[in-house]
Amino acid sequence: MMHGADPVMALRLLHRLRIFGAVFAVPPSVTMGLSEDAFGAAANRLAVSAYDEMQAWSHPEAGFDQDARRRCMMAAVLLPIADLQVPVTKGKPMSAAYHVVRESLKWKAKDAEAVDALHTTAPELVAVYRQLLGQPDGMPAPEELRVRLGHCIRRLKQLWPAGCVVASLLHSNPEYGGEITDQAPGAAALAAAALSGLESTDGEPDMPGTQRRLDFCEALLSAATAYGIAGCWQWKPLLDGKQVMAAVGMKSGGPALGKLMEAAVEWQLAHPDGTAEQCREHLQAQHAAAQQAAGME
């Protein structure tokens, strides 16, 4: 289906034959009133948008290999259930999207994890985009914005262009909060929005809508390039664990070391051209401040 020459047509046929819900099976107990017809309609609408967007995005750094395409398409298809959880016997509940990919479709665990990551990161990328729009022209981006975008890129790695596509779907539809909140879409609202415009999935491509979503993606990609963090998921740490421990005089690891390692990553994202020595000095100052604050308690 997603591996074939025309995944959009395959999805349409599943919906028209009324077997979409049997293929993308979600436990009835967690659907929260989302009907099979509404789910199929929403999924088709989003799949068409994602497919058109990937086809039209010609930026050299936005290449989609076969795995990226099918994972992006799957994330779009399952966006209507991104906020639903499936209880498990032991451990934390799994997302409904993970359940469908792993249990219903029998895809590999890494595919389910990738779809989950795309869903989780989409609201964060929407928030970054909004923050970018509020930046005055010619003003340097605040460190917090560079770090926030960098974390999204690090989480998605080579899938981050696909993350932009999924985030653009979230942002472009006000019916499920893309213009108002950073939360994942509500299943019922998203399905209603998709049903209201379903007829267009059988007609000509929605060129204005596709262009708006491409503008969204280009804004994020351009920002990452301008900030020097587009390839941050491939960076090596400026300091390893032993070097961090030596810098602050720690004798053993633990949660405190973990926090310092996270601080080192954030400093590197905020200062892409920074050196290991500068990072070391930053960690020493941060550790000293934390020690002083602890001593005052």
Q: What's the topology here?
A:
Layout (H helix, E strand, L loop, with lengths): L6 H10 L3 H4 L12 H21 L9 H12 L7 E2 L7 E2 H9 L4 H25 L9 H14 L3 H13 L14 H10 L10 H21 L13 H8 L6 H16 L5 H21 L1
Antiparallel strand pairs: 1-2
Helix pairs in contact: 1-3, 3-4, 3-8, 3-9, 3-10, 4-6, 4-8, 5-6, 6-7, 6-8, 6-10, 7-12, 8-10, 12-13
Question: How would you concisely characterize the structure shown here?
Answer:
The chain has 297 residues and is mainly α. It has helices at residues 7-16, 20-23, 36-56, 66-77, 96-104, 109-133, 143-156, 160-172, 187-196, 207-227, 241-248, 255-270, 276-296; strands at residues 85-86, 94-95.
Textual characterization of the structure:
By secondary structure, the protein is an all-alpha fold. It contains 13 helices and two strands; from the N terminus they run ααααββααααααααα. Strands 1-2 form a two-stranded antiparallel ribbon. A hairpin with a 7-residue loop joins strand 1 and strand 2 (94-95). Helix 1 packs antiparallel against helix 3 (36-56) and helix 3 packs across helix 9. The radius of gyration is 21 Å and the shape is globular. Residues 176-185 and 197-201 have low confidence and may be disordered.
Q: Strand content of the residues, in percent?
A: under 5%
Shape, per Cα inertia axes: globular
Classify the secondary structure makeup into a structural class.
mainly alpha
Average of pLDDT: 87
How many strand elements?
A: 2
**Rg to the nearest angstrom?**
21 Å
Kindly give the count of domains.
2
**Main β-sheet, in a few words?**
2 strands, antiparallel
Helix segment tally: 13
Share of helix among residues? 55-70%
Q: Residue ranges: pLDDT <50 for 5 or more in a row?
A: 176-185, 197-201
> What is the multimeric organization of the chains shown?
single chain
How do the SSEs run, as a string of H and E?
A: HHHHEEHHHHHHHHH
CA-to-CA gap between the ends? 60 Å
Strand order of the largest sheet: 1-2
GO biological process, one term: tRNA 3'-terminal CCA addition
GO molecular function: ATP:3'-cytidine-cytidine-tRNA adenylyltransferase activity; CC tRNA cytidylyltransferase activity; RNA binding
Signal peptide: 1-25
Keywords: RNA-binding, Signal
